[in-house]
Specification:
single chain, 16-stranded mixed β-sheet, about 40% helix, globular
Length: about 775
């Protein structure tokens, strides 16, 4: 037999199967990610309330909460008889604590965007003298509530915490610096109490004052240090132990929201702003009551504020004012000078570019990286679509959610549905991308976005640059090590590509969790976009990818589960006496025409009140600019016998073409706010005085408001009325429209009684309020 025949009869060798890549590195990295997430989130849980038997030198939420019976049993807006009782109680508590409190009463005014808000307020101020003071540490909370709620959490619980902190401080050695206790009035009506305190000059040189302000944006949750004003406060930030991030400082500065620290900061006072944010459906509502206050949150706030106050009480308040970037990670606050922010972002970019250039011979591909970077925005758009689309669907299924701006009692099921849709979008993007590029190229493309965002934030939002810069630096280092030490087909290489997800999880995940209850379902876009970026970093842990059929089936199942979660959750989401449904109904009486109207920011589908909304959508903005821009439903109401605003002792003079009209403006009893509008079609307002508070002139309302283009507000008018002075140019008399706003609905109008599982929507909506409008000629 020839050799050729022997060779031909030999069995053909079996084809070699590709060696199955081990998933062990991916499982190890996934376990590390999970442990990191748990460790990052655990500090967000507030500790349990400390009992009343705790040592005198420790803050006890149980001791603090005993004060709420004297503070928050009923609504006590600024100027009300109920607030006078609360003030008397607080003065007694401060005297019992060994201080000599003072009542600071004055008319204050603040002007924003040309519109002046004024009012007569009474602050409470007490001091604990220091041994060698370099300044004053000001502990601040406001003791007024919204007109329609008792304000047990906002801000009664924090007033109670201030009293307990004062007791703790008095039980130990005297501090080095003076301690000031400031309980402000009129915060809900426009920071009037804080402005009055600034105007009084009682605290002395504002450059030697550091304020610690306690606020609430809900009824529960951990203490969050969401803003610092001024530099040199990093030691106090660390001493507080609260979750914090300088990104929140940047964002809060761009929002229209304010706290007492806003007015203090404008005067040159440095400070720290603390608040808790969960339980938003109860915020500014009648059920912000004592039984809804979270003792754990009070404990968290008390410990955080006390830690900051103790550090500041012993510090040199004249030293160190440099700005810092700071953030909490694993319960520890890290900080570094703001001047390092841009260099660190540039370093991350330089390392990324060098790695891409040097790694070309080790498996990195610039084209694959560029394709990833170019298509990553599609996932961000998918996150935005999940947020906006989810809210749109929920608004159709549950229209009452719009009354609370998406603040719902059980948001978890809806957030889970949106998150599952986002996971489907991320998986689909990664699956398509992997047909053309390697897993390492995907990681490099995502890291490129992180360092680019870090550089952008370093210029525009320095306090938020760390969120992207540190994952970019650590991730680039991990990929560089993997490229250098492993082969191209190594399973450790793809696992290392997800290393950036570890620091990103530690930094971003707590922020996402805190943003969700703070922003509500209507604004889940921001946390979902952050989640998309975080998820994109971890996608290489899918390697090796399952079969196409299995992956398609999994994606379809997740999509069905997402839709089912939202649908079933919406169908089962009910209300109770502890978690009532929000409804809206207000009463408007035009005293000129004697016409009364029910108005609502909800529709006729609302229980109890919906039957009164028989006129469909109404527009009252022409007659009452206060209601302009609101989507209102209305219905004809019975005209109740209500007192209307009126003027007394009108006196007019004219000089150099400027007419000055002085009058006493009287309003109905129980009015908590007056809103004034002037007809500027034939008169130009040069200025006004409200009980001595100067109001800006000109046209401070847009042209859409027709003839009524000047406005000012006055809070807490005295029973005797308000001294009004208006200066204007123009011929003829001045037409002035006055809106008197009071809490509650008139008894003679047929207002319905609300059952226990229904409650008014949060203030400052029209819900549960009466507006009496009258046009006066001066």
């Amino acid at each position: 037999m020839s050799a050729l025949t022997q060779i031909s009869r030999r069995p053909a060798p079996e084809p070699t199967r590709p060696r199955r890549r081990s998933r062990t590195p991916a499982w190890i990295m996934l376990a590390l990610l999970l442990l990191t997430g748990v460790a990052a989130v655990l500090p967000l849980g507030p500790s349990s309330a400390r009992s009343g038997s705790a040592p005198a030198t420790r803050f006890s939420a149980q001791r603090a909460l005993t004060a709420l019976d004297g503070i928050a049993t009923q609504p006590h807006p600024s100027g009300s008889p109920a607030q006078a009782k609360v003030r008397a109680y607080l003065l007694g508590r401060l005297r019992d604590a060994g201080t000599s409190p003072r009542e600071l009463t004055r008319v204050a005014g603040r002007t924003s965007a040309g519109v002046t808000s004024a009012g007569r307020v009474t602050d409470i101020y007490a001091t604990v003298p220091g041994t060698r003071p370099t300044g004053t540490v000001l502990l601040v909370a406001h003791y007024d509530s919204v007109p329609t709620g008792p304000g047990a959490s906002d801000d009664g619980s924090n007033v109670a915490a201030v009293l307990e902190i004062l007791r703790v401080l008095r039980s130990g050695p005297r501090p080095r610096n003076d301690i000031g206790i400031l309980l402000t009035d009129g915060e809900e009506q426009g920071l009037l109490g804080a402005q009055a305190f600034v105007d009084s000059g009682v605290a002395g040189d504002p450059r030697r004052v550091v304020a610690v302000n306690l606020e609430a944006r809900g009824t529960s949750g951990p203490a969050v240090l969401f803003q610092t004003v001024g530099g040199g406060l990093a030691p106090a930030v660390r001493a507080s132990g609260a979750y914090t991030t300088s990104l929140a400082d940047e964002i809060f500065g761009m929002l229209p929201n304010d706290t007492d620290l806003t007015a203090l900061g404008e005067a040159g006072v440095r400070g720290l702003n603390f608040a808790f944010f969960q339980g938003a459906p109860d915020y500014h509502t009648p059920h912000d009551s004592i039984d809804h206050v979270s003792g754990a949150s009070v404990q968290s706030m008390g410990d955080a504020a006390l830690g900051a106050v103790r550090q500041l009480a012993g510090a040199d308040l004249t030293a160190g004012r440099s700005s810092t970037t700071y953030f909490a990670v694993f319960g520890t606050v890290l900080s570094y000078p703001e001047r390092l922010v841009l260099p660190l972002a540039c370093l991350a970019g330089l390392c990324w570019v060098l790695l891409l250039w040097r790694g070309r011979r080790r498996g990195l591909c610039a084209r694959g990286t560029a394709l990833t970077a170019a298509t990553l925005p599609l996932t961000l758009l998918a996150a935005a679509a999940a947020g906006f689309g989810g809210w749109w669907v929920l608004s159709l299924l549950r229209p009452e959610f719009a009354l609370t701006a998406g603040a719902v009692y059980r948001p978890g099921r809806y957030l889970l549905g949106e998150s599952l849709l986002l996971l489907v979008a991320l998986t689909g993007w990664y699956r398509l991308l992997r047909r053309r590029v390697s897993a390492l190229d995907v990681a490099m493309g995502v890291l490129g976005w992180f360092w680019a965002l870090g550089a952008l934030c370093a210029v525009l939002l320095p306090g938020g640059s760390y969120l992207f810069t540190w994952p970019a630096l650590i991730g680039t280092a991990a990929v560089a090590a993997a490229v250098r030490l492993t082969d191209e087909d190594s399973c450790w290489r793809t696992a290392a590509a997800a290393a950036a997800a570890v620091p990103a999880t530690a930094l971003v995940l707590p922020l996402i969790i805190l943003l969700l209850p703070t922003l509500g379902l209507s604004l889940t876009v921001a946390p979902l976009v952050l989640a998309a970026l975080l998820g994109a970093l971890a996608l290489t842990l899918f390697e090796p990818l399952p079969s196409r059929r299995a992956l398609t089936a999994a994606m379809a199942a997740l999509a069905v589960l997402a839709v089912g979660t939202v649908g079933v959750g919406s169908a089962l989401d009910g209300y109770s006496g502890r978690q009532p449904r929000a409804v809206s109904l207000g009463y408007v009486l035009d005293a000129d025409t004697k016409r009364a109207t029910w108005v609502s920011e909800g529709g006729p589908e609302q229980p109890v009140v919906g039957r009164l909304l028989t006129d469909g959508r109404v527009s009252l903005g022409e007659g009452i600019p206060l209601l302009r821009g609101l989507d209102l439903h209305g219905g004809t109401a019975r005209a109740a016998a209500l007192e209307a605003p009126r003027t007394e002792r009108v006196f007019a003079t004219e000089r150099d073409g400027v007419r000055t009209v002085r009058a006493r403006l009287r309003v109905p009893a129980g009015t908590h706010q007056i809103v004034l509008y002037a007809d500027t079609s034939r008169a130009r307002i040069a200025g006004a005085d409200l009980d001595g508070a100067r109001a800006a002139g000109g046209r401070n309302l847009p042209a859409a408001d027709g003839d009524w283009r000047w406005t000012a507000t006055y809070a807490a008018p005295a029973p005797g009325g308000v001294d009004l002075t208006v200066r204007f140019r123009g011929a003829g008399a001045l037409r002035l429209r006055v809106v008197a706003v009071s809490a509650g609905l008139p008894a003679g109008a047929g207002a319905p009684a609300l059952p226990s599982d229904v409650s008014w929507a949060g203030w400052p909506s029209v819900a549960g309020q009466t507006l009496v409008v009258r046009t006066l000629t001066l």
